Amino acid sequence: MEERPRKAYLYQTATNLLRDHWRRQKRERDNWELNKPPEEQQQDLNLSLDMAAVFEQLSARDRSVLWLAHVEELSHREIAAVLGLKEKSLKVILFRARDRARDLLDQAGWGRGHEE
Fold first, then answer.
1. 115 belongs to a structural domain
2. Is residue 113 part of a domain?
3. Virtual CA dihedral for 9, 15, 17, 23, nearest 10 degrees?
4. How confident is the model at residue 116 (pLDDT cuts 50, 70, 90)?
5. Domain limits at 30?
6. Of 12, 19, 69, 91, whose CB count within 10 A is highest?
7. Of residues 41 and 58, more confidently modeled
8. What is the DSSP string of 21-64?
9. Is the pLDDT of residue 42 over 60?
């Protein structure tokens, strides 16, 4: 298989795995709400659940570009190739995705000024 179709296949597989992961986390969050853990454990779970809830509010494309840029640490050129976009378009999409994520984090109380 050539490199470009292989990357597209891997990206689609990774996207499906992430969707499954988010669904599983939602089920776990719902389960935790029904069976609340002790207070000490609750504090540790809140941060990851809050971040997951914020991330779920982003579009699939925004989640994808943020994941590829910040978790996989791909360059703009690599992300554009994987998503089949032009590099300049990807830069704009990534900027806007970061902005939307920042707004959602601010709304959730996890903005720049957040302190425990």
1. no
2. no
3. -150
4. very low
5. 3-107
6. 69
7. 58
8. HHHHHHHHHHHHHHSPPPHHHHHHHHHHHHHHHHHHTS-HHHHH
9. no
Q: Could you tell me the CA-to-CA distances from 72 to 41, 64, 65 in Å, in that order? A: 29, 10, 10
CB 8 within 8 A of CB 57: no
Number of H helices, E strands in the chain: 5, 0
| CATH number for the domain that contains residue 41 | 1.10.10.10
Q: How many domains does the chain have?
A: 1
Residue 112: inside a domain: no
| Cβ atoms within 10 Å, residue 33 | 9
Which DSSP letter does residue 2 get? -
pLDDT tens column, 47-104: 555 677 778 889 989 988 998 898 888 899 988 888 888 999 999 999 999 999 999 8
SS3 per residue for 84-98: CCCHHHHHHHHHHHH
Running DSSP on this structure, what letter comes out for residue 49? H
